[in-house]
Write a structure and sequence with these properties.
Number of helices: 11
Strand order of the largest sheet: 1-2-3-4-5-6-7-8
Largest sheet: 8 strands, parallel, barrel
Number of domains: 1
CATH topology: TIM Barrel
CATH superfamily: Aldolase class I
Number of strands: 8
Mean pLDDT: 92
Order of helices and strands: EHEHHEHEHEHEHHEHEHH
Distance between the termini: 50 Å
Radius of gyration: 19 Å
CATH class: Alpha Beta
Shape: globular
Low-confidence stretches: none
Structural class: alpha/beta
Length: 223
């Protein structure tokens, strides 16, 4: 039986941050306008600065690097998407689950053969439309649903079941994971990719009992 590979993406637009944490296996990177805004200074030339950061990231990350468009209408989305794709072949275009976003996804998939990550997914119906329109990844947001009292893990499970029912090839990318429990639960459901902040990734290998055990070992050795 062929085993499924879990991929870990880093949710960051900070090149130095990504470079410093790349000692663990990072399969890809996801960015968004909020992260880009935090890591660019020139508001008048922010998009060009964002592209410059993305170029540096693609030089150290061989896997998918999701670059999100800023535009909200179809024509502008397409113009930005094709511009971002010129940066490197491993750029995955990130689009919102809106009418124009889905239209752009279909166009990029069918006529330009470009991978698309459909983001801001909050319902199984949106995930189905993304799959039908050729999305390579769907990014359901776990934590943001939890914030409004809806179990984000239920959304992941529903998408997983529907995708298996119809054998959709779109990969489920768990986004907006807030804690280690989220990570464990989405892995139990069987997502393809988990994207997480650098701070959350670092918290995985930190445990007080590990530190305490190491301290005891060192004391015993020094005796």
């Amino acid at each position: 039986m062929q085993h499924k590979k879990l991929k870990i993406f880093l949710d960051s637009a900070n090149f130095d941050e990504i470079k410093s944490i790349n000692f663990v296996e990072i399969d890809g990177v996801t960015t968004n306008p909020s992260l880009a805004a935090k890591n660019t200074q020139n508001k008048e030339n922010r998009f060009e600065e964002y592209k410059s950061v993305l170029k540096k990231i693609t030089e150290i990350i061989a896997g998918s690097v999701s670059a999100e468009v800023i535009a909200t209408d179809f024509d502008s989305m397409m113009a930005e998407a094709l511009d971002l794709r010129k940066i490197a072949n491993n750029i995955t275009i990130k689009l919102p689950c809106t009418k124009d976003g889905l239209r752009a996804c279909k166009e990029l998939f069918e006529n330009h053969h470009i991978d698309v990550n459909m983001t801001l997914c909050f319902s199984p119906a949106q995930a189905v439309l993304a799959a039908l329109n050729g999305a390579k990844y769907i990014s359901p947001f776990v934590g943001r649903l939890d914030d409004i009292g809806i179990d984000g893990l239920d959304l992941i499970a529903d998408i997983k079941q529907i995708y298996e029912n119809y054998q959709f090839s779109t990969k489920i990318l768990a986004a907006s994971v807030r804690n280690i429990n989220h990570i464990i639960e989405v892995m139990k459901i069987g997502v393809d990719v988990i994207t997480m902040s650098p701070s959350l990734l670092e918290s995985i290998y930190k445990h007080p009992l590990t530190d305490k055990g190491l301290e005891i070992f060192l004391k015993d050795w020094n005796k």
